[in-house]
Amino acid sequence: MIGTRCGFKAIALSLGLLLGSGIYAVNAASWAHSDEVLMRFSPDRDEYVTWDRIRLYLEVIGASDSLTVDIYLGIMLPDGRLFGIVPDLSFEGLNVDKGKLYAISLDRPASLVPAVSGVLITKGVSMPRTLVYRAVLAHGLDLAEGNYVALGMACLAGTLTPVAFSAQAFHFEPQTCSVSGRIFDENGPASSATVRSAKGAGLLGATANEVLSDSEGNFCLEGVPCDKKVRICGWKPGYYCQYAKVRSPTTSAVMVLEPITPVDNEEYEWLAPDPISLDEHFCVQCHAAAHEQWANNFHAQAASNILVQTMYAGCDVHGNPNRGPGYKLDFPNTAGSCALCHAPVAALESPYNSDMSDLPGLGARGVICDFCHKIADVDLSNLGTVYGINAIELRRPFPDRQLWFGPFNDSGPLDTFNPLMEKSELCAPCHACDFWGVPVYTSFPEWEASPYKEMGMQCQACHYRPDGVTTNVAPPPNKGRERDPGTIPSHMIMGEDNLSLHYQAANLSITASREADDRLVATVEVFNAFAGHDLPTGRPIRNIILLVSAFDGEGDELEFLGGDTVPRYGGTGGGPRDFAGRPGKMFAKILVDMMGNHPAPSWRQTMILSDTRIPALGSDFSSYEFRLPKSATCATVEARLIYRRVFKEIADEKGLPLDDVLMTSESETFHF
Known about the structure:
By secondary structure, this protein is mainly beta. It is built from eleven helices and 40 strands. It is globular.
């Protein structure tokens, strides 16, 4: 447990080292130990060391609060955060300005640097408080740009006596060299190829040190550590990532790029996410963390989740027919186009004849890993009318060599970088669909029309937000790279799978006034603060309900006199979760079919009856009037915002679970 206290005057830092079976801790007393090695060389690496467990104590001087955290290694970043790798804490960092501690959960090697005595805070850190660190620090981590943090203990004739240091900033300029050479493709020197360095296998993984080759394929990387083996990586569009190991400095580095297949192999056999038979390869063998995230997200369940299946078949959750809307009830002799997005592997074989109730093999697994990582490009020239697999260009390889597209330009040898992986356009084919000329799925167009596009904020920034823990997409015994956990996209796909985005999406604010005729008039603003699209988005049956209530000073609910009310789509059964007619509002896109039925399913020929959803960074205002007792001196107005994946009447018909997600709430008391 981490405890903090406001107004502390100083912080003491002590470090101890766990070696073998003994725990050596440092505090205000002296510490006696034998001359043991504080860092040990890893036998399989010639330039890295593995730190044993280090114990970090943060003590608030003059208070009883204390904090103990076991860490494996730590690094101080230029913005003043101390990153520690902790067995069972989540990722972030220690901000010395705010006194917050976070951490990472992995044991990784660190570069060995010359012994340094002193306390490192890092260059340019603001210190509003007096910070006192009790320790003699001997060894440290070599960070990018020459920033070090000391983590070891100086051994003074068998006894370590803590010494108090005032907070200081040290910045060491390491000696650097250059690596130059040439890069080629099958036609000769490769111009405009990206060449970058990756400094070892440290926590930060690949660096941002990269250049483009000239017209003759020449390149020169500056700022490379001297007298070290350096991994350099090369890439250009249409080629696999390639890499080479050289010792710096050198002028003779050479890389040869290999082209990827220029055409799609329609006979390719898809790689299964997990075992089908023991003699086959599958994704989880190398990518366990990504597979676990994928297996629990809506892409993996795109073809099988109960909402899709009951809406497609027109049944309830128990399989009873003719319960609520169903595609097969309206069009019993066709399979429809659902599989183009929900089951792309099956749709490739039979685009408009893939019955979602009877999908073969991997087609039933939804949007599998191998499919997305075979996307070479998308065609958005007919956005909305051409969608799913019809708007996707695949590049399935031939048997001589595998191929996967990913977000890193320093991977390999079976991978290559595709900038599309980091762009919203990747999502467009399945998140921009028109039916019967009516825009139904419009998440991508909503993002395009939002300020987020101009700001360069892509869909992946939120929905594939890194988990902050994963540092290797293919950890040992595989040969994946160690990377900054903030650079590895999560496959959890935040949104419907992880509701944390819902809790951040909207803000509520309330204003109110007492009118002369003893009426309380309240105005509620719902602000779409963080969703990069309309709120809500996606399937039209998703809806958000605003509920507003008012109470007097005794806690008695005030009589509602007039204003906005929740429509019937909020539930009319009279139960506690039937909100129709209550003070509030609903945010949803409502479709109406040619017979006047609404809300109507999108596969019918429909029109948009209403669309009350809130655009990105937009606000909605609604007003409510309540009767105030003449003697009232105050009143409290409460507002709640509730998200539902499906309209309540459809959930009731099909027996679907109706999870009311409380996105946010607000309560304001007004005195008169």
